[in-house]
Amino acid sequence: MLRLPRTVFTIDAVKATVQNVDGVRDCQVGDALGGVDVALSFFNSFAFDRRRFGQARLLGSPYFFDILVAPKPGYAWDTIGGVSGLQDQVAAAVDAVRPVGIFPNIRLADNVTIGVRATVTTGPGMDLVGVGAALKTTFEQGIDRLGLGNAVLASQVLRDLLNVPGVVDVQNLHLRRYPPTFGTIVFGDREVLQSTVIEADIGANLTFTANEIATFVYDSQLIDLQVSDR
Predict the structure, then answer these.
(1) Are 151 and 208 in contact (CB under 8 A)?
(2) What is the CA radius of gyration of the chain?
(3) Using N-to-C axis directions, what is the helix angle for 154-162 and 128-144, rounded to 10°?
(4) What are 29's strand-pairing partners?
(5) Hey, which residues does 169 pair with through a beta bridge?
(6) Distance between CA 230 and CA 220 in Å, rounded?
(7) SS3 assignment, position 155
């Protein structure tokens, strides 16, 4: 294995393979116990292809690395009947780029529904229903551009809404998220979510942990855009 090209079994290679699977929105690959051991005394003092970077792994002991996957809306995670789920599709794709004896631990990312509350003023004579639909579509496109752990910036949302044709002003913009946090202590076989919706202050951003990703639901009760022409 040491004689094979280093570009075959790398975190970047695994990440690129997972992102090429149809239905994957974003992913993160973690190898907490692997990587280059810079603490060794001989690090940076030997030829690249002549020696191992770290201590040899015990033969016969399985080793795992983590793949955090955020699916696109509408894609099933688990396999149902003859329809292969996204988890199994990712596992099959990764088999081609993982080293022998090193296995992926594929986990589902935490989806956080994002909403917005604001007062929107349009120019005279505009179709208020049409402008409201365009505002939702623009907000959805901005959320879909975000990856795992990316914050939702109030300034970015404000700019996107102001760029909708017919909109002349946006006031009192509040970002919302649900669930606010995922439970860390679980008694049972399911993770418990807090039920309260978080609404940020005017102009405040929404930040996320590395395993969370912002999602948009068109008919969500978190979206409250008051559109008027006065």
Answers:
(1) yes
(2) 23
(3) 140
(4) 67
(5) 121
(6) 26
(7) helix
User: Which long-range CB contacts under 8 A does 80-89 form with residues at least 24 apart?
Assistant: 86/21, 86/23, 86/24, 89/21, 89/22, 89/23
- 115 φ/ψ sector (left φ>0, alpha ψ -120 to 50, else beta): beta
What is the separation of C-alpha 76 from the centre of its chain, rounded to a whole number of angstroms?
Answer: 16
List, for residues 42-64, the tens digit of each pLDDT value.
555 555 555 555 555 555 667 78
Tell me the percentage of the chain whose pLDDT exceeds 90.
56
Cβ pair 131, 169 in contact under 8 A: no
Cα separation of the two ends of the chain: 70
* Length in residues, the chain: 230
- Block residue for tokens 């551009």: 145
Give the residue carrying structure tokens 């973690």. Answer: 30
